[in-house]
Write a structure and sequence with these properties.
Blueprint: H1 9-12, E1 13-16, E2 22-23, H2 38-42, H3 45-55, H4 64-71, H5 77-84, E3 95-98, E4 107-108, H6 117-123, E5 149-152, H7 165-173, E6 180-185, H8 193-200, E7 204-210, H9 215-221, E8 222-223, H10 227-242, E9 254-261, H11 269-277, E10 285-289, H12 303-310, H13 317-328, H14 334-348
Parallel strand pairs: 1-3, 3-5, 5-6, 6-7, 7-9, 9-10
Antiparallel strand pairs: 1-2, 4-8
């Protein structure tokens, strides 16, 4: 077995995406067949093929997202799960990444209607890409046994009515204090007291908080984002964690800030990191990049614009190395850049793209 490419996810986890697709992790392509329950999907022939390729030590094209982060000295989903299973685990459903629906109050430039109900509403007016996204019915959770890990995703989970008292009663019956909990939130609202009560009883809680820029760049990249609202709820999370003991050096505990780099905000990252550092949180920032759709990725920009980015101000060595690695991951493409300009024109029909987003165009 080649540990360089091995991932424990298909041996331990199932993921339900906001549109209902089932997959082994959030970055993996969805399973092709339909299944009635989470456990049926986990024990399917499709999943067994993935597991066997992991045993065989293959570098799988479906997993290139994680390989990039590994090779860029960033923290990948593969590293995250492998740290919890230092030896190849047996095949048993222990972890669930779950989104009830695509309900969301933001329209982010990197998103689409598969993960945002606001995007779904916008697309009824007219679409940028004429694709058909199918939203599947909720899948049964009844055959889930004990969970060692639970991740709640969105959409925006804190405004999702599915997560009511009955849901948390069910989850409490499938977990214990040692269950590791994660959540991804845009920090536009704060969970209900019933939700927080559940979290207080857990030893390990990790909250990923999205922030894709500050000022008018942030308001454009995540349409619906307001700094004062984000800050108010972010401070609530910091207060929640201040009352808990957790390892500040652990990637599996505490609050994290997730920044997705695109053509629009790549030059705003320095200011964002300065803003984050006011909360003494620079060491808890996870940088990712929008490789898909490729027209948002700086790797495919014309070289003259890449040079502008290379000469920009970097907050620290980690920031600089990550951006330079991204720029080297693709070649200049007039076709892809033309698509980016078309997308920018499309966005302008709804909200004016700030000049600060386009200083290299």
């Amino acid at each position: 077995m080649n540990k360089k490419y091995f991932c424990s996810s298909p041996f331990t986890r199932m993921t339900r995406s906001p549109n209902g697709d089932l997959r082994t992790c959030v970055y993996h392509p969805p399973l092709k067949n339909n299944y009635k329950t989470i456990k049926d999907a986990f024990l399917s022939d499709e999943m067994e093929i993935i597991r066997q390729e992991m045993r065989d030590g293959k570098r799988r094209p479906e997993c290139e997202w994680c390989y990039f982060y590994d090779e860029s000295n960033q923290y990948s989903c593969r590293q995250d799960i492998n740290e919890r299973y230092p030896e190849p685990p047996s095949t048993k459903l222990r972890e669930l990444d779950f989104a009830a629906s695509n309900k969301c109050n933001f329209i982010c430039v990197t998103c689409d209607e598969s993960a945002s109900s606001r995007w779904e509403e916008r697309n009824k007016e007219f679409k940028f890409i004429d694709n058909q996204i199918v939203h599947k019915l909720p899948i049964e959770l009844r055959d889930i046994e004990h969970l060692e890990q639970l991740t709640i995703m969105g959409g925006e989970p804190t405004i999702e009515p599915y997560y009511d008292d009955d849901f948390w009663d069910f989850i409490e019956d499938k977990t214990d204090e040692n269950t590791w909990f994660q959540m991804v939130t845009n920090c536009s609202s704060y969970p209900s007291e019933r939700w927080i009560k559940f979290l207080r009883n857990l030893k390990n809680v990790c909250i990923g908080i999205s922030l894709d820029g500050i000022g008018e760049v942030g308001e454009f990249c995540r349409l619906g984002w307001k700094e004062r609202v984000w800050r108010r709820n972010f401070l609530k999370w910091l207060d929640f964690f201040s009352a808990r003991e957790y390892d500040k050096n652990s990637r599996h505990e505490g609050p994290w800030i997730n920044f997705v780099v695109t053509n629009y905000n790549v030059l705003n990252l320095y200011d964002t990191l300065e803003y984050i550092n006011k909360f003494h949180m620079r060491e808890r920032v996870m940088l990712t990049v929008a490789f898909e759709p490729n027209y948002l990725c700086p790797a495919y920009l014309p070289n003259k614009y890449k040079e502008v980015i290379k000469k920009s101000k970097f907050y620290d060595e980690n920031h600089e190395k990550f951006i330079l690695d991204v720029l080297q991951k693709g070649n200049e493409s007039e076709e892809i850049y033309a698509k980016f300009k078309q997308y920018t024109k499309y966005l302008n029909t709804f909200v004016q793209v700030p000049d600060k987003c386009l200083t290299f165009t």
